[in-house]
């Protein structure tokens, strides 16, 4: 395994793989991507570039199949490529992209798939199409897979950090609150991450829900601790602004 850090180098491998696609089809292309890209250590921004270029070249009716092949290899970097392809496909087929992302996360059964795909698909969708995405996230918050619920936290974290509008943040925080009493470790990590980020960037929204947050029968201490950490980070940032 070698480390690839330059776009010029990854571009050579990617162009070769895409040429193989035109000559030999999807499976041949996937074999090349696996050998030259996914079997090496590649920085995430370069993998995101690959995902975008693959989306631009491979026709829409083969893109999900390509993602299926990527996910079957179970490489960490493959999640970045699949995540970006599905992200790009949100404008083509929103529901299918969300469903594919959900399936990949549920089937993988490991934390980094939740976070990588959750940010790039759920988070991007929430940031750019909040009215359409929020009802889906609310439904997925009751998904049978705790990995999917964790991924919602990663998505909300991403969207809030990137500037999600306040009304959507408020609605997303209510979804987080609905899971604030769970004991599952993975859900706690994902939901807690998003709660901390919300408190850091929107302390007034957290204050609005103070009574519900303080309800010890419905909200566990781990959730309140994440809120406290987020508020302290916000306070630190505000203090720096005054200096």
UniProtKB/TrEMBL annotation:
- Its domain of life reads Bacteria
Which SUPFAM superfamilies does this one have? Answer: ARM repeat
The family database entries (Pfam families) matched by this protein are listed as: DNA_alkylation
InterPro entries recorded for this chain?
ARM-type_fold (IPR016024), DNA_alkylation (IPR014825)
- Its protein name is DNA alkylation repair protein
* Protein's organism: Agaribacillus aureus
